Structures are given as C-alpha cells and as structure tokens.
What we know:
The chain is an alpha/beta fold. Helix content is 39%, strand content 22%.
Amino acid sequence: MAALGRLLGALARGGADIALPTSCPGCGAWDVGMCPQCRSLARRECVWSVLEAPGAPDGVDLCALGAYEGALRRLVLAAKHSPRRDLGPFLAECGEGLGAALAGRFHREGEPPAWDEIWVVPAPSSWRRRLRSRPVTAPLAAGVASALASRGACRRASAVDCVRLALGARSQSGKSGTARRAGRTGSMRTVAGVPPGAGVVVVDDVVTTGATMREVIRVLGGCDAAAAMCAPGRVP
C-alpha cells in the first residue's frame, strides 16, 4: 500500500506539472525552475542605506540586494505565497550575498576577526507561517551567517531564531506607515539572550518603514548591522 501511495503521489505531481507548467517565479520564463538571470540577483552588488533605530544615534547600516520591485519583488512574493515552489535554496544564496557584503564592512583581509561570535537574528515569522513551515527569513539568515564565518568576519556565526511575535500580532501587509509602526511597537519578545560581546546582525526579507526591524533591534538591545533582500534608501 505504501508503494502504491508513492506511485499515486508521483503521478499526481506529474499531472500537476502538465496542468501547471514550470516557469521562473521572477520573470515567468517557461520550463525552468528559475532562470539564470533571476538567480544571479542573489549575487548582485549590494546597496547600502541607514536604518534609524532605537539606541543608535547614527542609525544602523542596512545592506540590501535592491528595491522592492521587478523580479526581486516577484521572487519574494513567490517565496512567501507559492505552495508549489521551494525557494529556500535561493533565499540562502541571497543571504550569502548579503553576508559577503557585510563581511567586507566588518573585516579586512589579514586582520583578526571583528568578533569571536556573531548572532544573525531573523525577523520573526507570523505564527501562521510557522505552522505552515514556510519560513522566508530563516534561510536568509542562515546564508548570512555562513558567509560571515567563511569570510573571516568572526570565528563563528550562527543563525539564531530567538525573537517571537506575540500571539495576536497581525501581518503588516497593506498597512500605512503609521499603522505599521503602531502594529509592531511592543509586539515581540526574545526567547534567548545574546551572549556578552557577540556581534548582532538582524535580517528581514523586505524593509519598508523599518517598523519590524526596529522592534527586533529594541528587544535584542541593539545590533551592529542589518540586512534585507529589499529595502529603500534611508529608512525614516
């Protein structure tokens, strides 16, 4: 019976591929899981801006792959909402690109690491997304941590999912800037404390008003840099 179940499952998946042909989630190119041009967005030159944040008079350096538009926007939306696509490996690649850019800011070749340890903390997923096991920020954070360690910014780096949204906290999608800020203030808590002396990098998929990142930074007690797939210029 188990073998029959696997066979029927395989046939069903094959039928779905016929009914819904594969296309690139970034540009729509047919018969490819992701086209080379869209995949290369993970390795594009990063852009830098400043996130105004509590406890940081000069703001926090924010590294991003680009603005929330075009193929990059479509890839983020597919990662969040497409049940037929697993973009986890691509998100990890994006994280590696961001981590490489951060490492270049933190560390120069031949110098000792800036920290013994860096915690890379993803912005928390909603409880609904956690239950559906479709994280977006977790693979991003894992990629950032991998690149920071491999490029000498620290002796070890870990992606640590240590911030949670309070029960009842709602999605920020579609809200005005004022509503976003109000909706995130006081909405998070930590489940583990950052070790003394460790560096902290906060990671999110998209930064618009910066409300989510600011709340993560607040509950962590500060951070040394931030990274996102998409962000505007200076975040007010």
